[in-house]
């Protein structure tokens, strides 16, 4: 068949004929010098860091009642209250009533990523069931266009959490990793290499 030009997106680092940078050679030299016990210790160390992070996350889930106690704002629909990259801290205690004016994070059927918007209307039935409507502060219309087809209101079961506090722009790293997957892999590689090569002082 005709000769196709090589896809520029498929170039691999360290391909044949590409000299590895000196730091790369040093790293492999270091790895070779490590004896098995050291390597085992560093892998164990890394596993402990990961498991500690998971335990802290599970602890936060129990303490806050929310399946996602910390989320990053991904769009500008809540400006000026929250900006893209802000880190939100959530709680989701079932006994707390949902009130108009509250900022909630909710899931919609058919959408992978939860949405953070403000409650603008609440309907409470005699039996205590609550239905409510949301809207982004920066949006012209309410969220009925975002809900699944035929759904006009949200219920408590749709709520992931309510915003209790935030840190501005701290979540930008997450957004960069979502927008540029190569950055994510580079960051993970650097972190992995750092943990493996870290010497006990």
TrEMBL record:
Domain Peptidase S24/S26A/S26B/S26C: 63-148
Main localisation: endoplasmic reticulum
Recorded superkingdom: Eukaryota
Subcellular location: Endoplasmic reticulum membrane
Protein EC: 3.4.21.89
GO MF annotation, one: serine-type endopeptidase activity
GO CC annotation: signal peptidase complex
TM helices/strands, residue ranges: 39-57
Pfam families to which the protein is assigned, alphabetical: Peptidase_S24 (PF00717)
Keyword DNA-binding: no
PROSITE patterns registered for this protein in UniProt: SPASE_I_1, SPASE_I_3
Keywords tagged on the record: Endoplasmic reticulum, Hydrolase, Membrane, Protease, Signal-anchor, Transmembrane, Transmembrane helix
SUPFAM superfamilies: LexA/Signal peptidase
Keyword Nuclease part of the UniProt annotation: no
Enzyme class, spelled out: hydrolase
GO biological process: one example: signal peptide processing
Catalyzed reaction equations: Cleavage of hydrophobic, N-terminal signal or leader sequences from secreted and periplasmic proteins
Membrane topology: Single-pass type II membrane protein
Cited NCBIfam families: sigpep_I_arch
Quaternary structure and partners: Component of the signal peptidase complex paralog C (SPC-C) composed of a catalytic subunit SEC11C and three accessory subunits SPCS1, SPCS2 and SPCS3. Within the complex, interacts with SPCS2 and SPCS3. The complex induces a local thinning of the ER membrane which is used to measure the length of the signal peptide (SP) h-region of protein substrates. This ensures the selectivity of the complex towards h-regions shorter than 18-20 amino acids.
Function, in words: Catalytic component of the signal peptidase complex (SPC) which catalyzes the cleavage of N-terminal signal sequences from nascent proteins as they are translocated into the lumen of the endoplasmic reticulum. Specifically cleaves N-terminal signal peptides that contain a hydrophobic alpha-helix (h-region) shorter than 18-20 amino acids.
Family membership noted in the UniProt record: Belongs to the peptidase S26B family.
Protein name in the entry: Signal peptidase complex catalytic subunit SEC11
Organism: Desmodus rotundus
């Amino acid at each position: 068949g005709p000769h196709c030009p090589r896809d520029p997106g498929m170039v691999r680092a360290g391909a044949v004929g590409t000299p590895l940078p000196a730091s790369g050679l040093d790293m492999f030299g270091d790895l070779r010098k490590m004896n098995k016990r050291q390597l085992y210790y560093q892998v164990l160390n890394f596993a402990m860091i990961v498991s500690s992070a998971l335990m802290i996350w599970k602890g936060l889930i129990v303490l806050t009642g929310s399946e996602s106690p910390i989320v990053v704002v991904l769009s500008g629909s809540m400006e000026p209250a929250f900006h893209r990259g802000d880190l939100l801290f959530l709680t989701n205690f079932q006994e707390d009533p949902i009130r108009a004016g509250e900022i909630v994070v909710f899931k919609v059927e058919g959408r992978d990523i939860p949405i953070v918007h403000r409650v603008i209307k609440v309907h409470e039935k005699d039996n205590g069931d609550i239905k409510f409507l949301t809207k982004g502060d920066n949006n012209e219309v309410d969220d009925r266009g975002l809900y699944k087809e035929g759904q006009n209101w949200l219920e408590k079961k749709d709520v992931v959490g309510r915003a209790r506090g935030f840190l501005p722009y701290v979540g930008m790293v997450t957004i960069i990793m979502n927008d540029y997957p190569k950055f994510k892999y580079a960051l993970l590689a650097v972190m992995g290499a750092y943990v493996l090569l870290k010497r006990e002082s």
